[in-house]
């Protein structure tokens, strides 16, 4: 395969120069109109009875996106950076809940497992399906599905090489080559790579990465296709979040505020290094125009070495300092070195047929997940630090101890029927049965069963308007035992959603959605036993979302969104949080982003873009009272000069370099936000 990809690179580099010079630049249209995540079939967004957002690779590049969670900055209902600048994971909230992370339609991350973050340059697009989605995807919470779609080989030769330099000494080389590999045009390859040498906003923390993603597609026949996707990734980084004390940030006295870049750990100890390798096989076969078979299989293996020394602000949130002057903070050290193996598979059959006036697209499938994790961990107190004049190099790390091996398997069987009546009415009906097994060390095996349903109806009412109704469910196995060795029941969610989609023309789509989500079986403290948890917790999330994308005359596009969300705790054994705003969830989100193109001579163009995003205030309630974190508004910009083969791009995020927190918590710490980032990129396309 390496030889084939080498040939691809050579062939791409020496393509017909005359053809390249004559090539006209593509228009500014980058708005998607189809997605597979909502139904696992290629369905138009206007025919999907549920709110879904699609972020293309072009949109992500225009907005200066540097990681997966940042792709959601301009999507309705999504609090993209719910825990600020955090290199440990892509922590977003959708309608008040964490979405499940998927890659190419298969689970990427189980719960809060520490796995390497994906590289956005390897993505073709990202799709966000909002709300419970267990009918198609199995175990997951009420936030929905966030599916990343990898770049695939193309049978038209193309390639690009880019160099970037930016804030925090960010230096990055990236390349993307694709095209046919044989004269018959039945085999195509692609290779995507990233090499980054950078620092973080946090002092003395690296952000280095190497990624290589080769892929191969073989058109075995007109009816059969096989695709291989490979990934090798190496990260050398550290935790960006330092859990700065509230009393030295949000509630700091004049002259006492710590800068967001302050490191309270140790540069010689703190690390977040990871290695990951995965192989994915995608198989498609059409027995006829009416019968298709699809199979997906992925094996992924990762190892992470995570060490963090952080301030202990939790023992005494109001005054965490050890000295009378309020300078020296106690610290703790935490080590976690997980080794994770994941095998996922999804096999389904799609059948198209008619019963009288009704046209059916039936999808029936079986999916499988096997997750295994072993880990060595350590935790303990270490040396204190002067937060205002830190001196590094004096620390003690705890010893390591093996943790019980975690094994989880899930098997699901699902059936879905997309029913089309005439040209205006589409209904979606689906059901699924899951079995999930969890084994932790020598503890008794936990076995959970769940049945999930889904129903939706959307009607083309004319003039581009399509009102819709939908119902969906979710379940999430807890996978642990209570104090009395009884297994917890799966967490369950259900959603009612109604709305209207308006598409007066191909390059315009407006979605207005109103939803009501209720999630039960959440764990809360047992009032009769401090060592136990009980499942009496319940959360309600109700809201309205508006999202619009519009392209005008092929030289201007705009996306805008507004979200209002009332997420509240309706039942809990912790009385202060009942009927209060759900922790860390803002009630309001709003954003607008636009790009305008101007022609430059016969073959060039200038593109100017600007965006504004607003996040409302959040609330945190703890044993020491409540704490509200103010909302914030940030501005982003794009300047790009494009020629047929060259692009010179400047991306700017958080233009005013606003220092903000996302969020601060009543437990005593603050999650810092991302400061101003300026990145210049030169790209050569061939």
Automatic annotation (TrEMBL):
Predominant location: membrane
Single Gene Ontology MF annotation: signaling receptor activity
SUPFAM superfamilies to which the protein is assigned, alphabetical: Porins
Compartmental location: Cell outer membrane
Keywords: Cell outer membrane, Ion transport, Iron, Iron transport, Membrane, Receptor, Signal, TonB box, Transmembrane, Transmembrane beta strand, Transport
Pfam families in alphabetical order: Plug (PF07715), TonB_dep_Rec_b-barrel (PF00593)
Biological process per Gene Ontology, one example term: siderophore transport
Residue ranges constituting the TonB-dependent receptor-like beta-barrel domain according to the UniProt record: 218-655
TonB-dependent receptor plug domain location: 45-145
Cross-referenced PROSITE patterns: TONB_DEPENDENT_REC_3 (PS52016)
InterPro entries membership: Beta-barrel_TonB, Beta-barrel_TonB_sf, Plug_dom, Plug_dom_sf, TonB-dep_rcpt-like, TonB_sidphr_rcpt
Keyword Membrane: yes
Entries under Gene3D superfamilies matching the protein: TonB-dependent receptor, beta-barrel domain, TonB-dependent receptor, plug domain
Matches recorded under PANTHER family: FERRICHROME IRON RECEPTOR-RELATED, FERRICHROME OUTER MEMBRANE TRANSPORTER_PHAGE RECEPTOR
Record protein name field: TonB-dependent siderophore receptor family protein
Source organism (scientific name): Lysobacter antibioticus
Lineage: Bacteria, Pseudomonadati, Pseudomonadota, Gammaproteobacteria, Lysobacterales
